[in-house]
Design brief:
alpha+beta, four-stranded antiparallel sheet, binds magnesium ion, 7 helices, 4 strands, binds adenosine-5'-triphosphate, globular
Length: about 140
């Protein structure tokens, strides 16, 4: 897909959905000129969360991470913008909300390293894989 490099994959994680912050985050996404190509509310099973975070399977926090990600609904999104992968990670801020820059989503909405409000793909290759994990081609508008 030619425009794939302008796509990234994002999640509004269970902590932010639970706290009623997903509307605020979606507004910030729109205000930052991302085009929302696909979006849905899902509640991942443990197995689905483990599949999504498979690269972290050997990490000590894998159990905590997949328990959290399957604990409540989250919002999954395909986002389009020029240089989308970096643009979305810049808007999210550092993984640890305490270290995230002012004005980033994790600074504003993240509570801890484990519950940090949002996810974003770390490369164009992974964006394509992650979009494909949650969306069919027909779901991209
Ligand atoms: P994400 O992949 O969620 O966008 P990231 O790319 O900034 O975040 P990763 O290193 O890929 O960070 O870690 C994935 C997720 O695992 C983090 O967002 C965080 O929620 C969790 N995590 C990372 N390190 C730790 C840790 N030391 N303890 C607990 N949770 C962690
Ligand atoms: Mg990551």
């Amino acid at each position: 897909m030619a425009e794939q490099s302008n796509l990234t994959f994002g999640i509004i994680k269970p902590d932010a959905v639970r706290a009623g912050k997903f509307g605020n985050i979606i507004q910030r996404i729109v205000d930052n000129d991302f085009k929302i190509r696909a979006m849905k509310l899902i509640h991942m099973t443990r197995e689905e969360a483990e599949g999504f975070y498979d690269v972290h399977r050997e990490r000590p926090f894998f159990g905590e991470l997949t328990t959290f990600m399957s604990s409540a609904p989250c919002v999954v999104m395909a986002l389009e913008k020029k240089g989308a992968v970096k643009a979305w990670r810049d808007l999210m801020g550092a993984t640890d909300p305490a270290k995230a820059d002012a004005g980033t989503l994790r600074k504003e909405f993240g509570g801890s390293l484990g519950e940090n409000a949002v996810h974003g793909s770390d490369s164009e290759e992974n964006a394509e894989i992650e979009i494909g994990y949650f969306f069919s081609k027909l779901e991209l508008v």
